[in-house]
Design goal:
With about 220 residues, this protein is mostly helical. Helix content is about 40%, strand content about 5%.
């Protein structure tokens, strides 16, 4: 966002401030970006970059924005155009799988000192080097002998996690749960099985690990 009319980005130079907004502030689950708006009063311009601006950016930022640009996913045609623009050559053999690679991978292997063919070959190698997901021995929730109470909670949590993945529920509406019981009663197994069934990643940790980090449990918790 900037003054009206917004000047071309290339002409802004040191007057441009770029803010990446990926998630809300964990403390208080606050939206972000409002603090940077003060720079507009000093003839500066601000560009906010976010994958979910409606749920992450402060409402003041959304209301004051002069321009919103939605960047579409990379397509084979767009990747072909990128290679042509960077190398000056014609790219042959660009596939949908290549376009689905992470943007950081694409920008790392498509370089101006390479030919278009070499860039395509790099993309082929990047596809071959992708790590295959490790198969888990943890059973799905349907295979666990859960009590009625735990089953009802697990089913609701699965539905909520699925809603977050489809965008019909924001992550801040998830209910955080503590499983309590003596060692060996399956607390970690239930949590890991829930993550696997939902298609989410399971990240184990412990209070002992927090305290052994050297700066206390609270600081370790903030890093999770």
């Amino acid at each position: 966002m900037g003054r009206d009319p917004p000047p071309p980005l290339r002409s802004l130079n040191d007057r441009l401030i770029t803010t990446t907004a990926t998630e809300r502030l964990k403390k208080g689950n606050l939206r972000i970006g409002a603090n940077e708006l003060a720079h507009l009063q000093h003839n500066r311009s601000i560009v906010y970059v976010s994958a979910d601006p409606d749920h992450v950016l402060d409402r003041t930022v959304l209301a004051a924005a002069d321009l919103t640009i939605t960047i579409p996913p990379v397509t084979p045609a767009l990747l072909d155009k990128l290679i042509r623009g960077v190398t000056g050559g014609v790219a042959c053999g660009v596939t949908a799988d290549m376009a689905a690679l992470e943007v950081t991978v694409i920008t790392s292997v498509v370089r101006p000192e390479l030919s278009a063919g070499a860039c395509v070959a790099n993309l082929h190698r990047a596809l071959a080097r992708r790590l295959e997901p490790v198969s888990s021995s943890v059973p799905l929730l349907t295979a666990l002998p859960l009590t009625d109470t735990v089953r009802a909670w697990a089913d609701q949590t699965l539905a909520d996690l699925a809603a977050v993945m489809t965008g019909t529920l924001t992550a801040d509406h998830l209910v955080y749960t503590m499983l309590e019981g003596p060692p060996g009663t399956g607390k970690t197994l239930i949590a890991e099985s829930l993550a696997r069934t939902a298609g989410w990643s399971f990240v184990p940790s412990s209070v002992g690990t927090w305290f052994s980090s050297g700066d206390g449990a609270s600081a370790a918790w903030r890093r999770i």
